[in-house]
Amino acid sequence: VGRTLPQAPVAMVAVTSFLLASTGALLGGSLRGSPVAPRVSVAVRMADDFKVGVIALQGGFREHLNAIERQGGVTGMEVRTAADLAEVDALILPGGESTAQGHCIVESGMLEPLREFTASKPVWGVCAGMILLADHLEKATGQPLIGALRIGVERNAFGRQIDSRYREFKLSGEAAEASLSQQSYFIRAPVVSELGEGVEVLASLPDDRVVAVRQSNLLATCFHPEISNDDSWLNFFLNKVVGVDSSSQPLPNPTTKAPWQFTPADDGYGSLAVKRAFPVFQQGGVIMDVVDGEQARIAEAAGACAVMALERIPADIKRDGGVARMSDPKMIKEVMAATSLPVMAKSRIGHFAESRVLEALAVDCIDESEVLTAADEDNHIDKRPFNIPFVCGAQDLGEALRRIAEGAALIRLKGNAGTGNVIQAVRHARSVFSEIRTVCAMRDDEVFVYAKNQRVPVELVEQVRSAGRLPVVTFAAGGLATPADVALLMELGCDGVFVGSGIFKGENPARRAAAMVAACAHYRDPLKVAEVSTGLGKAMVGLLEHETPASVAALLDQQLAGKELRNAENAIGGIDASVAA
Q1: What is the 3-state secondary structure (H, E, C) of 303-361?
Q2: The pLDDT value given to residue 286
Q3: DSSP-assigned letter for residue 218
Q4: How far apart are CA 394 and CA 382, in angstroms?
Q5: Is 402 in a helix, a strand, or coil?
């Protein structure tokens, strides 16, 4: 971290291979008035089976892959291992949570291969990707950095999610010459705080903070063109930085791709588009329940992409009984101070006053949660007036669409929280995704009846049919207790997972948390899931569907182990007859 890399030599660019050059010795500089390298002339070549990789460990990688599909002559490829990296000609580091991505990169053995790749090949870092490319951060966090881009970066420079916007910026240099887009989403975005030698400024805000730079073969932006209905920055990367002659197809309808909304007419403060954009960059990640700052630090070190702050994890809520309410603001603020990750918190269903308190605390997302005691048996919260996103639970497509109609920006498939039993999470995932497939196959005249029967706006049903998915990010939750559980829900089609009791009610919480993250990033690799599952110790004692929390609580109080524990488990439940057949 913070090291100065040697400058790459100038090289000629050939038709079949190319090296993107930096310049000769230039003096380093501060943010203002740093010397800029002369432009590097890149020979344009025809794209013939040219592969552009996207790091696909966590974050908004799918959105980049979708954008690459619209470019003629290039092929997009997910990069999850060093072997994948060796197959691509250029690379995109997507937006997401940089600490989670850094953890996954190290865990996957990719840090050194990435450093070698960025020394000569074209790379575009977006938001978190810019952070990873930087050679130092303004506030040292200990997170791994690739270190190829001679800039300093301030993380979360605009504040928390409530400060995210659709912002306008001014162009300079090559970006101005290419007439690139001057508006984009800034979601918990960084800014460039220091410029080193050879770095050219391409875009800055009206207050002159730098938000896009180029250094020879490296491009970095603080903002997200891939969700801004804008391929101009991708075209710039391919044509000017990579040197590939590619052509772009027409942009799709914005309501069919993330964030499934038209771009805002103004800065988008509190808009549905900005709120839906936030969970896009949680994709491929694990959101962990924590009850204090120490658990939040464990979650961040394990590679979580966000934490859910609550005083009692769901298993304890079920065990203790009584009314479960919003957590003490003191604890929530402790968690917010302990981690750089996004922090979520729960309010009761229908309790808009609790949600207003959480918004005043500036948490990054509110969970209107069935885990807490409902405050209103008929009405959910109208989430549309709030300026921060909500996550809500759903068991089927109709329930998911009703919550989205109320303003939810993230759907959490309910499962059965606090049980360590994944069966309901699987049931709800299969229900939602199979119903989506049914909707996609409907005739136009069948959509109206479906919408009426589900008590949802017909426009939402039509949007699902056009997009082929929910128009928000969809996570699994409720009962995930092992890395294999995580892999199962990801394979079924979820965008990520919530895990709570399954970590801190099992043995070796820190190792188990890291294993959950690895299984989420590598869910299609059963050998990897087996590797991270090995030696974790016993998972949490779970509830079968017909068991009561009190019976299992009594079992836990006995502090049993081994064969004695298995015998006691069978005595209070045995095999669940509802699924044994």
Answers
A1: CCCEEEECCCCHHHHHHHCCCCCCCCHHHHHHHHHHCCCCEEEEEECCCHHHHHHHHHC
A2: 98
A3: E
A4: 16
A5: helix
Q: Six-digit token pair at 45? A: 């070549």
- Please identify every residue annotated as catalytic: 346
Rounded to 5 degrees, what are φ and ψ at 90?
A: -150, 165
Question: Could you give the CA distance from residue 42 to residue 70 in angstroms, rounded to a whole number?
Answer: 23
Main-chain dihedrals φ then ψ at residue 513, nearest 5 degrees: -60, -45
Q: Beta strands 165-168 and 183-186: pairing type?
A: antiparallel
Contacts of 431 (CB under 8 A, 6+ apart): 395, 396, 397
Provide the strand spans (E) within 332-375: 343-348, 365-369
Tens of pLDDT, residues 188-244: 999 999 999 999 999 999 999 999 999 999 999 999 999 999 999 999 999 999 999
106/55 Cα distance (integer angstroms):
13
What would the pLDDT profile of 13-52 be if each residue is shown by its tens digit? 333 333 333 333 323 333 433 444 444 444 444 445 799 9
CA 443: distance to chain centroid? 34
For the cut 50, the answer to whether the pLDDT of residue 411 exceeds it is yes
Residues facing residue 72 across a β-bridge:
247
231 Cβ partners below 8 Å, 6+ apart? Answer: 67, 70, 71, 225, 248, 251
> Under the phi-then-psi rule, with left for phi > 0, alpha for psi from -120 to 50, and beta for the rest, what region is 412?
beta
Higher pLDDT, 320 or 64: 64
- Closest of 378, 381, 377 to residue 358, by C-alpha: 381
Rounded Cα distance between 124 and 231, Å, is: 14
Residue 495: name the closest of 278, 293, 350, 333 by CA.
Answer: 278
Confidence (pLDDT) at 36 = 44
**Please, which residues bridge with residue 464 across strands?**
none
SS3 224: strand
